[in-house]
Structure formats: structure tokens, C-alpha cells
Design a protein that fits this description.
Layout: H1 24-30, H2 36-40, E1 48-50, H3 59-67, E2 73-74, E3 78-79, H4 80-84, H5 88-93, E4 111-116, H6 120-132, H7 138-147, E5 169-174, H8 194-207, E6 213-221, H9 226-241, E7 246-253, H10 264-273, E8 279-282, H11 288-298, E9 302-305, H12 314-323, H13 333-351, H14 353-367, H15 374-382, H16 387-397
Parallel strand pairs: 1-9, 2-4, 3-4, 4-5, 5-6, 6-7, 7-8, 8-9
Helix pairs in contact: 1-11, 1-12, 3-13, 6-7, 6-8, 8-9, 11-12, 13-14, 13-16, 14-15
Bound molecules: flavin mononucleotide.
Flavin mononucleotide (FMN) binds near residues 3, 53, 76, 258 and 284.
Length: about 400
């Protein structure tokens, strides 16, 4: 999994002095989404979405999130090379085998496909292949990769038929703290090399038809040095100049990985400096209320929900409840069981039973936090491998 890292850091509050004086319920009730967002992505009607989460945010998790009110999802970071090789990453992105989730199908839409890589042409070719769902022979994508998009006009992106389009947006990952491979930057390491980062952003934008949005995920910097701040500003501004619809800024540094608080003060300063730009943000969203705290504190337009939604799709439902003035309630045992059954079934459809068993164990551990005897249930989920074992835990602990 390209972007996976230590996610066991216990929740801790973001750096946001004075945030405790904000009433999130009040913010939610009076909030209206910036109309530019649903204009760019029809259906994106609330100020939150499911972030890319390598090893988690597959179609099964996304569909469960959507059924709980999540208006928009991002795939995990798919490596450009994996996509071009037609490997596992692409098979995962191409969900034609999942009956209720064909590309562009009603349940898994609108969707951003996220790509990450080291070479601008390769990223451009991967972006085209992703939105076209590999409609052309492989050599055509290779040609874009080898000669560059502009050098291969016959490689111009074909217009994917509207009914068959799965991705409204291509999101470029310049945030993931993965290690460099053979001294080549990718993900967040591009924040130290702004010229290369901008070349990638340009190549991807040029390769895609205009009605496919391009967006970029960034960290607040590679580290906290003045040089890192300058690099961030260059890449951030270049993205909008190139026509990127928005940036999502994770308010930790690449050096921090996922450890320590995210700095919401950085986001507040960023929106003050760029009042006209659409800016999304990520970092330290653990409960529905945090979404509205972050919006009120920072002035950003929408919030990426990441670790806070693993095993907790109710966070989206609760955010919608807050927006309609309803006090959010924790899920009942019956509601938990329904989700545990549905998520497992969807995961088997997407991943096959053997992989689903292993993947769902990670989710079960997180789902168990909602149970009155959380520790006992967690221990049971750790042992699960098969559908039968999953159902045994449900029958033992989730009968109302
Ligand atoms: C296990 C794991 C996998 C992640 N994978 C991705 C990814 O593929 N793409 C991405 O943009 N961000 C990825 N992230 C970063 C999250 O989207 C998010 O920005 C980060 O976790 C900060 O938000 P949080 O503190 O609310 O969890 C990942 C984070 C974790 C913990």
C-alpha cells in the first residue's frame, strides 16, 4: 500500500487556540456550501468528504460512507506505474465486476481518482488511463508516457461517454510521506522540489479534457523551514494558475507523517491570504463536530474526513444531522450490525473473500469502539478470517 503509515497515533487536538469557544452545532445549522463546489462536482452538496486512505478507502468503504451521507470520495493513492502496468491498483479502480458499482454507477459517484508518481508524462498517461478506464490498447498509454502528452497529439484523451464515466476528478497526491524510490521523488517529497511538482501538475492538467476537474492534495510543507514555506506557496499558487479546481491541504508536514497535531492556524492564515480560492483541508477530524470547528476556525470550504471515518461511517450521518439542527446520536447495536454485514458483503464483492477477511479485521477493530463492551469485541474481530467467523462475532455481540 503506497501511502500507508503509522495510523495508530491516538487522537489529539489540532493546534487551534480558542477553538473551544466555537459552537459546532451553530456553525453547522447556518452553513451554506460555496456554490462553486456543486457546480464543479454535481452532487457535492455538503462541506465534507471521505479522504483517500490507502488500504481502507476501497469501493466497499466508499459505498458505506455514501449510504451514510458522504457526498464525495477519493480513492486511495494509485501509483502511476501500477496503473500503467494494468496491475492491482488499476483492477481496484476498475470496478466493473461489482454489480452495483460499475464505473460511474449510481452508488460510487462522484468520485476522485487519486494518482501519485515520479514522472510528469507517466502521471499524465496514468490520469488518462484512469478516466478512460483503459479503453485504448496499452501501447497508446505507453506512447503518452514515452513521448509526453504534448508530443503525441494522437494521444489526446478520448471523451469518455458520460454514462460510463467513473471519475469526476483526478486528484494529484503531493502529500504522502512514502520514501523515495531510487532517489526519485513522489507524493509529499515533491514539496522539496517545486519545479518538478509543477511539471507534474501541468502535465496532468494538459492531458485531461476540461470537464474532468483536477485537484491536488498537499501537506503544509515538507518541514517547518522558511524554504519549505516558500516551496508550498509556489506549488499552491501554480496549481490554481494551471486551472486546478481546489487544493486539499493536510495541515501536518511531510516530516511529521501522521504523528502530532495538525496546525489549523496554518490553514487560517492560508485562507486569509487567498480569500478567492477554493481550499479544502485535512488533519485531526475525529468527530462530526470537528468538521464544523475546522470550517469556523480556518475558513476552509470543505473538510477531508480520514482516520475519523475508519469504522465510523456514522460521522457523515451525524454531520448531516448537525446541519439540520438535529443532535447526533451514536449508532444503535442494530445499526452497527447492519453496517458490519453490508461492509463485509461489499468487501467480498470488491476484494474476494480471502482478502476481505484480512481487510475487514482492521475495520472490525475500529468498529468495535462503538460497542458497549468494546475491548471484548475488538479481541474477537482480531481473530476473524472468513465470512463465517465474521458472522459468528456479529451473532455473539450484535444481537439487539
Ligand atoms: C492509513 C492511512 C492511509 C492514507 N492514505 C492516503 C492516500 O492514499 N491518499 C491521501 O491523499 N491521503 C492518505 N492519507 C492521509 C489522510 O487522507 C489524511 O490527510 C490524514 O490522515 C490526516 O487526517 P486525520 O488526522 O483526520 O486522519 C492516509 C492516512 C492514513 C492514516
Amino acid at each position: 500500500m503506497p501511502c500507508q503509515s503509522n495510523n495508530a497515533t491516538p487522537p489529539e487536538p489540532a493546534i487551534a487556540p480558542g477553538v473551544e469557544s466555537i459552537d459546532p452545532a451553530q456553525v453547522a445549522r447556518t452553513f451554506t456550501i460555496d456554490p462553486r463546489i456543486p457546480a464543479l462536482v454535481p452532487g457535492f452538496d455538503a462541506p465534507f468528504f471521505q479522504a483517500g486512505l490507502a488500504g481502507y478507502s476501497d469501493a466497499a468503504m466508499r459505498i458505506i460512507a455514501r449510504r451514510h451521507g458522504c457526498p464525495y470520495c477519493v480513492t486511495e493513492a494509485l501509483l502511476d506505474r501500477t496503473l500503467l502496468g494494468g496491475g492491482k491498483g488499476f483492477a481496484k479502480a476498475n470496478l466493473e465486476n461489482l454489480a452495483d458499482n460499475v464505473p460511474g454507477g449510481a452508488e460510487d459517484h462522484p468520485l476522485a481518482g487519486q494518482i501519485m508518481g515520479s514522472d510528469p508524462n507517466e502521471m499524465a498517461a496514468a490520469a488518462v488511463k484512469l478516466i478512460e478506464q483503459a479503453k485504448r490498447p496499452a501501447h497508446e498509454y505507453r506512447k503518452i508516457r514515452e513521448r509526453g502528452f504534448d508530443a503525441a497529439p494522437e494521444g489526446k484523451a478520448v471523451e469518455p461517454s458520460k454514462s460510463n464515466r467513473s471519475f469526476s476528478t483526478i486528484d494529484v497526491n503531493l502529500a504522502c510521506p512514502v520514501k523515495k524510490i531510487k532517489a526519485k521523488a513522489r507524493g509529499g517529497h515533491w514539496l522539496r522540489e517545486p519545479d518538478g511538482a509543477i511539471d507534474i501538475l501541468r502535465a496532468v492538467r494538459h492531458a485531461l479534457p476540461l470537464e474532468i476537474n483536477t485537484t491536488v492534495k498537499l501537506r503544509r510543507g515538507s518541514d517547518d523551514s522558511p524554504q519549505a514555506a516558500q516551496n508550498f506557496d509556489r506549488i499552491f499558487n501554480a496549481a490554481y494558475d494551471l486551472g486546478y479546481a481546489w487544493t486539499t491541504v493536510h495541515a501536518r508536514t511531510v516530516e511529521q507523517k501522521y504523528v502530532g497535531p495538525s496546525r489549523w492556524t496554518f490553514l487560517k492564515d492560508l485562507t486569509a491570504r487567498h480569500p478567492d480560492k477554493i481550499i479544502f483541508a485535512s488533519g485531526d477530524i475525529w468527530q462530526a463536530e470537528d468538521i464544523f470547528r475546522m470550517i469556523a476556525f480556518t475558513g476552509i470550504h470543505a473538510v477531508a474526513v480520514a482516520r475519523g471515518c475508519i469504522g465510523n461511517p456514522w460521522i457523515f450521518q451525524q454531520a448531516r444531522q448537525l446541519m439540520t439542527g438535529i443532535k447526533p446520536e451514536p449508532p444503535t447495536i442494530a445499526e452497527q450490525r447492519q453496517v458490519l454485514e453490508d461492509h463485509f458483503r461489499l468487501s467480498v464483492a470488491v476484494n474476494g473473500e480471502a482478502l476481505a477477511g484480512r481487510l475487514m479485521r482492521k475495520f472490525g477493530i475500529r468498529f468495535s469502539a462503538h460497542h458497549p463492551t468494546a475491548e471484548a469485541v475488538r479481541v474477537e474481530f482480531i481473530k476473524v478470517n472468513t465470512t463465517d467467523e465474521w458472522l459468528t462475532v456479529l451473532n455473539e455481540h450484535y444481537t439487539a
